[in-house]
Structures are given as structure tokens and as C-alpha cells.
Amino acid sequence: MNKKELIRLSATKIIAEEGFYKTKVQDIADDAEIAVGTVYIYFKNKDDILDYIFESQHTKMIEFIEKQEKQEISPLEKIKRILRYHFTEMENNPDLAKVLSQEGTGPLKNKESEMKDDSLGVPDIFQRMLEESKEIREIRDIDAEMFGYVIFFVGRETAYLLQIKGKKDRYYKAFEELLTFIVNGIKV
Amino acid sequence: MNKKELIRLSATKIIAEEGFYKTKVQDIADDAEIAVGTVYIYFKNKDDILDYIFESQHTKMIEFIEKQEKQEISPLEKIKRILRYHFTEMENNPDLAKVLSQEGTGPLKNKESEMKDDSLGVPDIFQRMLEESKEIREIRDIDAEMFGYVIFFVGRETAYLLQIKGKKDRYYKAFEELLTFIVNGIKV
Amino acid sequence: MNKKELIRLSATKIIAEEGFYKTKVQDIADDAEIAVGTVYIYFKNKDDILDYIFESQHTKMIEFIEKQEKQEISPLEKIKRILRYHFTEMENNPDLAKVLSQEGTGPLKNKESEMKDDSLGVPDIFQRMLEESKEIREIRDIDAEMFGYVIFFVGRETAYLLQIKGKKDRYYKAFEELLTFIVNGIKV
Amino acid sequence: MNKKELIRLSATKIIAEEGFYKTKVQDIADDAEIAVGTVYIYFKNKDDILDYIFESQHTKMIEFIEKQEKQEISPLEKIKRILRYHFTEMENNPDLAKVLSQEGTGPLKNKESEMKDDSLGVPDIFQRMLEESKEIREIRDIDAEMFGYVIFFVGRETAYLLQIKGKKDRYYKAFEELLTFIVNGIKV
DNA sequence: GATGAATGAGTGTTCATTCAT
DNA sequence: TATGAATGAACACTCATTCAT
């Protein structure tokens, strides 16, 4: 496998176990069965590894979102599909779910690193969708900016919550309950 | 002032600015205008300071909640009042809002420290109130455990979000929107 | 009891348990049931406490030795009595035995503190006695300086050794064996 | 040179000068002209350095002793040769002599570290040799355990004593006097 | 004299990062 | 690219000592 991806996977695993600050670069290298020095060929520094974990998942999200944009479906339905996609991803990636929840703060950990480019964060995308949804009277006249974020982190935190609370079996049922909650919360 | 409280205030301020791991105990001591050694008279170690910040606010919450319990009001109304109380607290304490949001993970940062006693966390209390609310058909038959947590961290994160997003002026309006969102989301 | 003596006893106990460097002045104060500050009324600093322990025992030895000097006995017999006295002292004071053995290095721990006055150390006294003994042909023509020290630390170390090796019951028998060893070693 | 050995030599030098507790790991690193961090690649902690100094010398002793065991010589003669070997070693290594004397307490400083394996300490070996010596009526019926230790620390302390007392020139003469003392002390 | 809260210099240890091989 | 020994700045924590009460 691509070494950068190998490092990302090991880092996700170790950071999920130990937390970012307690994770040693050496531990990541050990898990990936490579030398510490090698990590620094693919990453500028330790923070860069965490950024990459967030960016990778963000990129996957954006790709999925772009596919949805081409569909002829209502903005609210789009949001629901995006959340469903996120839940599926997190179910297949418990370590990642934990890292995104524990180490994430706002869109990206390091404000400095920001989004590299001018691409929007998921909360911003949700905001735009909510605004479109408002225009077609699908939902109430809510503060789209605030709810863009609220829906984003409710999704992120709940995906992790359901795992630690051992709801594995009822994962999808609980998830649909959450969707109903959100939709009821904002619909006209 | 009580030295332990003095340290708590300085720590909250510095941790809000720098983040817990980048905060040096020396910085806290400097801000409090005491010697480093003094910090260690009142706190076992650096983690203990963060725990105390969480515990202090938790204690205030619990005290407020216990006062509500004596009132003759519906469980859902109690939850709303608790959230309102939290928002007021966070408005008066932006640094604390940031620390609770950024450094908090689940109920308490350090799982080991647990709740000292057997006192319930706020999510647990919300859960119980939701169950009572379900019984009187005030709300739908939702997963009370999950929504106990969801309401808890929506409250926590949004209180912080509104501050960084500069909604100061519309703070209460935005907050009432959030309450409506939650109530609509779970009501029958 | 005299507070300085109280501190000396507690210090001896704690230092025997923990070793001098691992002993905290606070621990000594706790054991003596006084405040730390009080320790510093009677002692200049921590080292001073250890010095006092050594000096106290040294003073007792010197007093005993001076009594012997007045007796009409051979120098070799004097040495034997001094060693016997030391053994009895150590048997009654296991903690002190340990401290003298573990923390003692040469006559006094702190070279700077030296003997306060110009009083001789026990090795020096043994040296003089050995010289007298040589003159009366009681013992061989040995290096009195070296054997003054050798007999001194054999006495000190063996007194402690017999305790940790659990020879309590055979303590005096073992001790007499040691005396025989020394006398045989140096006699004509 | 092997870095671990380099550190051992610098540590021996500095500890001899300053004493173990006053020695800073940084001082050792400076003397060895390496970074502090490097010390911790080769040693678990500061105590571990002292243990290694003792172990290294102990290993040399054991190697010498094992060579003696193959010789057809009396047990008492073996002990004499071992002591002679020790004296030669200490003469060539005054710093080590000082460290072994000042920082040594019983066989090894840290009881926890024990002998790594089940190898015997030198006092134990002396004890066995004394027992063999007793069997062939070479020496009196002495307490072999006690005298194993007595001979061990008389050897160790005297080797150091002769150096600080400036007997360099008469070192071997004094040493032979000590051997005579010991042999006379225990022979039939 | 007695107290013990406060001090702050001092130090062991860690670990992200580098770079010669 | 890959390695991993070496680096050294950084930091949590300790504890002898002081001094206002």
C-alpha cells in the first residue's frame, strides 16, 4: 500500500487509542512497521498527520457531496444522505470516528492550516443547503449558519456516541431516529 | 480570593487561549501571580486542574438542576431551563465555554477521574427527564439515552459556537431557535 | 523531650527507611509531629540533621572512650571494649546502625563540616591505641593508620550486617568471632 | 568507542567527584560530549547508570573468579588472588574505587535491580570459599556468611582508603599487610 | 518558639525532529 | 526513499527553605 495511507491508518488507530498528544510519532511508525524518519518524508510534522486524517475524510465527504449535487433531490434529502453516508463510514471505521470526535474542533484542528484551498467545510455546505431548503419552504426560517454547524457536529458526535454506548446492533435504528429528530426540528 | 479558585480562573483563561496541552503550568501560575509550586499545593497535577474546571461547572449545573427538581414543571420544561441556565453561564464565561467545548470529551476529560462520587452526569440526568417526559406523552418514544447525550452536547457546542461566530447580539434569539429545534425534534 | 533530640530520632528512623536523599524534611517533621518550620529552628539545613546524627553518636563514643582511657587496661583491650560498646549501641538502635552504615563515608558525611572542633575521629583514636599497642609488643608492627580505619569500618559495617542478615540471636557470638578475627589478625 | 561504555566512564568520573545525588545527568552527558537524550537511549534512568557501573565491575570480578576456579589452588589462596585482583583494578581506576565505596551499599545499590540473573554476589562467593576452606582445615570454624561479607567490604573500603590516604607508593605493601591481617584472622 | 503556606530554583525525563548513512 | 541513532529544547513536578502570623 501507499506509504502515506499506511501511516494515516496507523496514526488513526494509535491516536484513537491514546489521544493525539499522548501519541508518539515513534508509536505510529512502529505500528506501521516503518522507521520514524520515514514518517517525516510524507508529513511535515506531527500536526500534519492529524490534519491529513481530517482532510482525507473531508475529501471523501466532499466527493460524496458533489455526487449528490448532481442528483435531482431536495436539499433536505441531500443532507439526510450525507449524514447517512457519514454514519456508514464511521461504522466501518470506529477508530476514525473516535479521532474525529475527540481531536476535532471546528472544521479543522489547526486553524492555521485551515482548508488548504478555498474549499468549503461541511458545515458551510450544510448552511447552503439549508438556505436552499428554506427558499423552497421545505423547512422553517432558521439560522442556517448555526444549524449548518449544529447538524454537522450532531452527526459527528452521535456517530461516535453510538459506538461507545454499544448500540452497534441498533446503530441504524438509532441513526434514523436522529434523522427524524433533525428533520422534525427544522421542518415547517 | 481562595487560591484554588484563583488558579481555576487563571487556568480557564490560559487553557482557552492556548489549549490544554500547550498550556504550561508556569503560565497559569504567572497569570495567577503565584509560584508554580503553589499550584501543586492545590492540585495533584496538571490534569487535575482541568478536571477541577469541569467538576466546578458540573457542580454548579447539578445545584441548579436540583433546584429545578423541586419545581412543579414538566420534564421538558426542566430541560429547557437547564439549557437556558447553561447558555447564560457560558455567555458570562466565554473562556469556560471554549474550554468545555475544546477540552471536553464525553462527560469528563479523564475517564479515570470519573465522577468522584456516584453523582450522575448531565447527559444521564437529561436521559431520566426524557424518560419521564415520554411517560406523560409530552414527547415521542425516542431513545432517551442517546438523546440525553445529543441534547447535552448540542447545548455545550452551540453555546461556544455562537460566541466564536460572533452572534453575541443575537445570542438569545439564536438560543431560543435552538430550543425550538430540540423541542420540535422530540415532541409527539 | 528536647525537640532537637525528637527530630534526631525521627530523622534517624526515616533516613534508615528511605535513605538520606529520598527523605523529605517534611517527612521527618511529620514523624516528629511538628511543623517543618520548627526543624529549621534547630537545624541550619537538611545536611545539618545528618551531621548531628553522626555527631551525637560520635560524642557518645568519645565519652565512652574517655572513660576507658582512665582504666588501667591494655590498648588492645580498650579497642575491644569500644567495639563491644558500639555493638551494644547498634543492637539497641537498628535504625541508627543502618544510617551510620548507609550514609556514612569516612568519619563524617560532609567533609566541610569536618569535626567541628579539633576532636579526633574514632579511626584516629584507634590508630593511637594501635601505636601504643605496638610499642608494648602486644601486636605486630602494622600500619596503624590503615588499621585504625579498617577496624573502625569493620566494626561499623558488621554491626549493621548482622542485623540485616538476621543474626539477632547469635549477635554476640558473631560479634565475639569478629573480635577474635581482629585480634588474631594483628597480634604478634 | 561503544556509547554505553563511554557514558559509564564519564558517569564514574563525575559521580566520584560529586557523589551520585549531586551528579546531574546533564553533567555526565557533557563530559561524554553527547546530548542528554542519548544517555536515555542506553539507560532507563539515572539509577540505571549507577547500577550498570556496579554490574560492570561485578561482571569483571566474576570473570576473574571463574578463571580462578579452574586453578588447582586452595580456597584461601583464591580469596587472596581475588582481593589482589580487586586492588589492582582499583589502583588503575581511582574514580571507580571511590564510587564503589561511596555509593555502594551491600552488593548493589538498588535492591530492586537485584542481580539480574541468579548469579551470586562476591560476598556469597567468598562465603562458599570459606566453607571449603573450613572443610580442609585451612581456616578456623568461623561464621562463613559473616566473614564472606567482612572480607568483601574490608577489601572494597581499604582499596579506596589507601588512595585517599595517599598511600599510593606503599599501596602494595599496605595491601599485603591487609592480606596478612585477614589470613591471620581466620587461619587455624 | 512554632507554624505551614508559599516560594522558585533545580532536574530528570520526554519526544518531535534531523541527517549521515 | 528509508533508516534510526542522536539531538536538545521543553516541561512537569519536587522539595529545601523562608517568613508572616
From TrEMBL, chains A, B, C, D:
Domain of life: Bacteria
Pfam families: TetR_N
Keyword Magnesium attached: no
InterPro entries membership: Homeodomain-like_sf (IPR009057), HTH-type_Tx_Regulator (IPR050624), HTH_TetR (IPR001647), Tet_transcr_reg_TetR-rel_C_sf (IPR036271)
The entry's DNA-binding region: 24-43
Keywords, in A-Z order: DNA-binding
Domain HTH tetR-type: from-to ranges: 1-61
Gene Ontology MF, one: DNA binding
Protein's UniProt name: Transcriptional regulator, TetR family
